[in-house]
Amino acid sequence: MEPGQFGAVIVAAGLSSRMGAFKPLLPLGNSTIIERILGTLREAGVEDIAVVTGHNAEKIEQALGSCGFSFIHNGDYASTDMFRSASLGLDFMARRKRAVFFTPVDTPLFSPATVRLLAEHLQNTGTEDPGNSIVTPFFNGRPGHPVLIGSEAALKLIGHTGGGGLRGAIEAYGGPKKNIDSGDPGTVFDADTREDYKRLTMMDLNKPFS
Question: Whole domain around residue 155: which residue ranges?
Answer without folding.
Answer: 6-201
